[in-house]
Amino acid sequence: MQDKGQGAQVNIALVSAIVAVATIGGLLFGYDSGAVNGTQPGLTAAFGLDEAGLGFTVGSLLIGCIFGAFFAGTLADSMGRRNVMRLAAVLFLAGALVQGFAHDHTIFVIARICGGIAVGAASVLSPAYISEVAPANIRGRMTTVQQIMIISGLTAAFVVNYYLSAAAGSSTSPFWGGLEAWRWMYLMQAIPAAVFLIALFFIPESPRFLVAKGRLEQATDVLTSIFGAAVAKTKIEEIRASFSADHRPRLADVLSSNGFLGIRPVVWAGLVLAVFQQLVGINVIFYYGSTLWQLAGFTENDSLLINIVSGAVSIAACFVTIALVDKIGRKPLLLIGSAGMAVALFIMVYAFSHGSLDASGKLVLSQELGIIAVIAANLYVIFFNISWGPVMWVMLGEMFPNQIRGSALAVCGFAQWFANYLIAQTFPVMASSWGLAASYTFYGVCAAISFFLVQKFIHETRGIELEDMKG
User: Fold this and answer.
1) Which of 215, 252, 292, 412 is most buried, judging by how many CB atoms fall within 10 Å of its CB?
2) DSSP sequence for 325-357
C-alpha cells in the first residue's frame, strides 16, 4: 500500500509496521507505570513500608528512567536507535520477572530501577525514531501512536490488576503458584517485553543515524524502501547537509554562547515541555489512582474501575490528537490542553475542599461531590491526552536539528523523568500532610503557568522537515 505525501510515494505499510514495533516500547512504558497502581497494598505489606517508603519504592522506577532517558540519547548517537531499544527490551523483561519474584526490598528496588532505565530509554527513543522515518506531513499522527500505546499499556495494566485482584479476592491474596496477585501484576509485563525484543529484529535502523555514521549505502536502502529510489537520493544529501562537517553529534552541541545559561533556546523550549508535562500532576492519576480514589472515599474495587474508565477515556482522547495534530498544529493543542487542565484541576480542588473527614481523619466525599471529582478527573485526563500527553513526545522527537537531536533528547529526557520522579515521590506525603485540595491546587497552578510558557517559548513544527529544524 502506498500513499502520496509531500510529493513522494510513501510506503505507508512499511512506515506503519515500523511505528507499530517502535511503540511497543510505549506500551511497556505505560504498563510498567500502571502496574504499580494496584500493587501498593501488597508492596506495603510485603516490605513493611511507611508513606515515604512507598513513595520511594514507586518512584524508584523513575530513578532508572532519569538515567535511561539521559544516556539513551547519547548511546543512540553511537550505537544506533534500534540497538539501544533492544537493550531496553532486555531490561524490561528482566525487570518484570525479578519484580514479580523478589522477596527482598533491595532486590525489588534494583529490578525496578533497571526496568526504569528501559522505560526512560524507550520513552525518548521511540518518538525520535518514528520522527526520523515518518514523512513530515504525517509525522505528528505517527508519533501520537506512541501516546496511544502508553495509555493502552496503562489501561491494560488497570484491567489486569482489576481482574487479578477480583479473582484472588484482593491484591494481597495468594493466586497462581501461591504468589500473591500483586506479584502477578508485575510478572504479566514479561509477555509484551518479549514481543518487543523479538520484533525489534525486524525493523531497519534510522536513516538519520546511518548518515551520521557515514553508512550511506544502508541509509539509502532504508530511505528507498520508504520513499522510493528517486526521493531517497535527494533526502540523503539533505540529511548529510544538516550535520556538522567538523564533528559527529555530541552532548556539547546543546550549548550555545548566545543562549540563556549557555544552553540553546530550542533546548530550553524542550525543557519547558518536558518538565511541565509532569508538573501538572498527570502521573498522580496513573501511579496513585487507586490510592487517590480510596483517599476520596471510594472502595478498592471502585477505585480500580475508575482507573479503567480513565484509561479508556485517555485512549479516545488520543484519537482526537491524531485527527488534529497535523491539521491545526502542535502549539494550539498545547494551549487548549493547558487551559482545559487548569479548569478541571480546580474543579477537583473544589470537590476535595468541600469533603468531610470521618472519625479516623479520612476524607469522605458526598455522592454529589464524588461524581463531580470523577467527572473533573476524566476531563483533566481528556485535555492532557489531546495535548501535552502526545504532543510533548511529538515535539521532542522532531523539534531539534539532526546534529543535536540525540543530545537534546538526553537533556530533556533527564529533566522530564526527574520531574516525574519528584511528583511521584512527593504525592503520598503531600496528600497526607497538605490534603488533596492543596496538592491539586499546586498542579492546577502549574497547568495555568504552562499556558503562558507555551505562548512565549514554543514554536510550531507542523509540516517542517527534520532537516529544516532550526536550533
Assistant:
1) 412
2) TTTT-HHHHHHHHHHHHHHHHHHHHHHHHT-EE
Q: Give the span between the Cα atoms of 348 and 340, in whole angstroms.
A: 13
Q: At what angle do helices 330-353 and 436-457 cross, to 10 degrees?
A: 160
Could you state, in order of their start, the residue ranges of all structural domains in the chain? 11-203+243-468
Find, among 344, 307, 318, 328, the residue nearest to 171 by Cα: 307
DSSP state of 400: S
Contacts (Cβ under 8 Å, ≥6 apart) of 69: 120, 121, 123, 124, 409, 410, 413, 414, 416, 417
What does the pLDDT read at residue 286?
62
Nearest residue to 431 via CA among 299, 291, 310: 291
CATH topology of domain 11-203+243-468: Growth Hormone; Chain: A; (1.20.1250)
Contacts of 106 (CB under 8 A, 6+ apart): none
- And the C-alpha cell for 350? 473544589
Residue 363's contacts (CB-CB under 8 Å, 6 or more residues apart) are: 295, 296, 297, 352, 355, 356, 357, 435, 436
Cβ(266)–Cβ(399) below 8 Å: yes
C-alpha cell at 460: 510550531
Cβ burial, residue 304 (10 Å; 0-12/13-18/19+):
buried
Nearest Cα neighbor of 156 from 382, 317, 314 is: 314
pLDDT of residue 207: 92
DSSP class of residue 468?
G
Q: How far apart are CA 59 and CA 40, in angstroms?
A: 12
Contact assessment for residue 168 and residue 175, using Cβ atoms and an 8 Å cutoff? yes
CB 99 within 8 A of CB 184: no
pLDDT at 5: 44
**118 neighbors 78 (Cβ within 8 angstroms):** no
Helix residue spans in 200-264 (DSSP H): 207-212, 216-227, 229-242
Q: How far apart are the first and last CA of the chain?
A: 35
CA 134 to CA 124: how far, in whole Å? 16
| Cβ-contact 157, 35 below 8 angstroms | yes
- Are the CB atoms for 70 and 84 separated by under 8 Å? no
Per residue in 158-194, pLDDT tens?
A: 788 888 888 888 888 888 888 888 899 989 989 999 9
- pLDDT of the residue at 404: 86
Helices (H), 228-299: 229-242, 265-279, 282-295
* Helix, strand, coil distribution of the chain in percent, nearest 5: 80, 5, 20
Identify the segments of the chain with pLDDT beneath 50: 1-7
